Amino acid sequence: EFPPARQRLDLLEDALQLLPLMWGPGAPPFKGAVIEAAETVCYPRPLQDHLPILVGGSGERRTLRLVAQYADACNLFGDAATVARKVEVLHRHCADVGRDPGEITVSHLSSIGPDDAPDDLVGHYRQLADAGVQTAIVNMAHLDGPDAVEAFAEVVAAFSLR
Question: What are the contacts of 30-34 at 24+ separation with CB within 8 A?
Fold first, then answer.
C-alpha cells in the first residue's frame, strides 16, 4: 500500500518524534497521529547521544516545516533558483518554530553524465552553494571505473578550498 501524501507526512512526523525517543534513555510510551507504541524500545541503542536525521524532500508547506522542527539536515533537488527559494522557505519555518537555520545542513541531490564538462559542473555547484547548499550528493550513473571518478576530482578540488 502506498498511502496518500498527507498520510505519508503524518507517518514521517510520527517517526521524526518517535525515533529520538527510541534511541534515548528509557522506554516511554508514544502516541502520534498514526503510530502508537506502549514502549519506545530500541536495542542495541546507538553509541552516540544524538543521531542526525536527514529529511529528503522539499514540500514547502509541510516537509520543510518538519525539517525545521525535527531534522538536522534536508536534501533538496532542482536548479539553483528552486533551491534558493526552498532554503528561504526553510528559514521562514525555522523562524516560526524558534530555531536557528544554521543548525540545519542543506544538501542537494543531482546526477552527472560522462559528457558533463568539469568547468560546467564547477559553475553548477557554485550556483547551488550560493543558493545555500552545503553538501552535494552526486549520482555518477556512468561510473565504470576510476577514470570517471578522477574526472570529477577537478570539481571536488574547486570546493575543497571554500
Answer: 34/7, 34/10
